[in-house]
Amino acid sequence: MSQGWNEEWMKKRMDEQRTDEGSTKQRKTRMRRMNPKKTKIAQVMISDFIVSLSVFMLVLMLFYVTWTRNVDAMGEELLRERALQAAQKGMDALTLSPGFPSNWAVMGLASPGDAALGGIGTAQSPGNLDEVKMAQLAAWLGNPNNHNATLKKMGIGPYDADVGLSLTDGGTQIYYMGYGPQSDAQVLASAQRLVVYANKSATVRIRVWRAGQ
Question: CA-CA distance, 98 to 101, in Å (whole number)?
Fold first, then answer.
């Protein structure tokens, strides 16, 4: 009787094991069926992320390029505005100011860097140019050792510039002062005014460009 009970118990255990193994196989089968779906979802998510990242990088690059161009444009505009201000200061020094002191051209100054010279001006009166001052200005602007210091005393520095004076009638050139811009330099501003020189109608011109070009 005991042997019969043992056999029955063993048979029951084997049936339970087979049942467990069947359940395990079913679970594995269901997992295998579900995994392709999860893989596909993961692939879609990765693809969406890559596309989103690419779009973001493209937008960021376009923003950077646009911002850089705007900054460059604003910098160029500011440079031209300051150059125009320098040209106007230089023109005022030529046509409106007698200089400081007003007799600077006959003081025997060794150079425009002399501390006694507060500012260069060539006007005898507004619109009427002094011949002696114009001659001294031409000598200093034509001297490489005095050129930059002269421009600073005219209010033009740190820009470079040249000055021209010609008769209105016939256009005969009386003075050309300076060295002119190099071939790769761009004139940023210019100005001209009608003046009187040696009791004759004349036109004074000034051009300004970035120093070192």
Answer: 8
